[in-house]
Write a structure and sequence with these properties.
Elements: E1 2-5, H1 7-15, H2 22-29, E2 34-38, H3 39-50, H4 60-67, E3 69-71, H5 75-80, H6 91-102, E4 106-109, E5 121-123
Helix pairs in contact: 3-6
Length: 124
């Protein structure tokens, strides 16, 4: 399975994995799955850290980038945003939705607004 992590799922996986349901834990631990972490999530983390809204261990982002497959933001992801209904207002989450659609990825999230979209999702 090709899975795209929502930012909070990666945070929980490394800081408090018991917050994630059993299915999510199994998906993340299964080496046969390809787990993607978006450049949008790296950007979101850096922004929240710099604004003082989030504290994570200094090695966190480096660890995530080592453990998961990087998903860059490409033009076709941005173009797809024009076709997405604005049920969600968070630009980082909208990019994850777009990437999920464009690259046929299952988005692992607990965000109720994301779960409203007609995309492949697993609830974390």
């Amino acid at each position: 399975m090709n899975v795209l992590l929502d930012t909070h799922v990666a945070l929980w996986w490394y800081t408090d994995p018991q917050v994630l349901n059993k299915v999510s834990q199994d998906v993340l631990a299964d080496l046969d799955n390809t787990i993607f972490f978006s450049a949008a999530s790296v950007w979101e983390l850096h922004l929240k850290i710099s604004l003082g809204k989030l504290k994570v261990p200094s090695h966190f982002i480096k660890k995530v980038m080592e453990d998961f497959t990087e998903l860059p933001i490409r033009s076709h992801h941005a173009i797809r945003l024009l076709k997405i209904e604005m049920l969600h207002r968070d630009p980082f989450d909208l990019m994850l939705i777009s990437q999920s659609m464009e690259d046929d990825l299952t988005l692992l999230t607990r965000d109720r607004q994301i779960l409203q979209y007609q995309i492949k999702c697993l609830e974390a």
